[in-house]
Design goal:
The longest helix has 15 residues. This protein has 127 residues and is of the alpha+beta class. Helix 3 links the parallel strand 4 and strand 5. It is globular. A five-stranded mixed sheet has the order 1-2-3-4-5. 29% of the residues lie in helices and 27% in strands.
Length: 127
């Protein structure tokens, strides 16, 4: 497995990963999101995109881990942990002072293992 910083994978590769990892259908254009990100990291097996994480930011001190995913065929190999670790290091190197993440309860132990500590937060569904 190779981690690549800011690889800008084509939409076809990201959509294929999303469909496998999130069991989603439909196509998205990821380029507007990635063009505004602080960084993103892809995990590759040869030329195949097998994992991905995006780091959004507020343009200042706060960065946000989003969309951590690994193709089901490649799970349980430490890829997600490596992606989040690379995201943390890149966000810090690019000036972020805080790294946030929201996640489903079932992922609590994973993100704790990556170094995140629980905090109180709120969320509001807009659509």
């Amino acid at each position: 497995m190779e981690l690549r910083t800011d690889p800008y994978p084509p939409n076809s590769e990201l959509n294929a990963l999303w469909q496998a990892a999130w069991d989603e259908t439909g196509e998205r254009d990821f380029m507007p999101v990635l063009s505004r990100s602080l960084t993103h990291v892809g995990a590759y097996d040869g030329e195949r995109l097998t994992g991905f994480v995006n780091v959004a930011w507020d343009g200042g001190m706060h960065a946000f881990v989003l969309d951590t995913c690994v193709h089901p065929e490649f799970r349980r190999r430490g890829i997600a942990t490596a992606l989040v670790g690379a995201a943390k290091n890149l966000a810090s190197a690019r000036g972020a002072k805080w790294l946030h993440v929201d996640f489903e309860t079932r992922l609590t132990e994973f993100y704790r293992g990556c170094g995140f500590v629980p905090t109180s937060a709120g969320i509001m569904r807009l659509a």
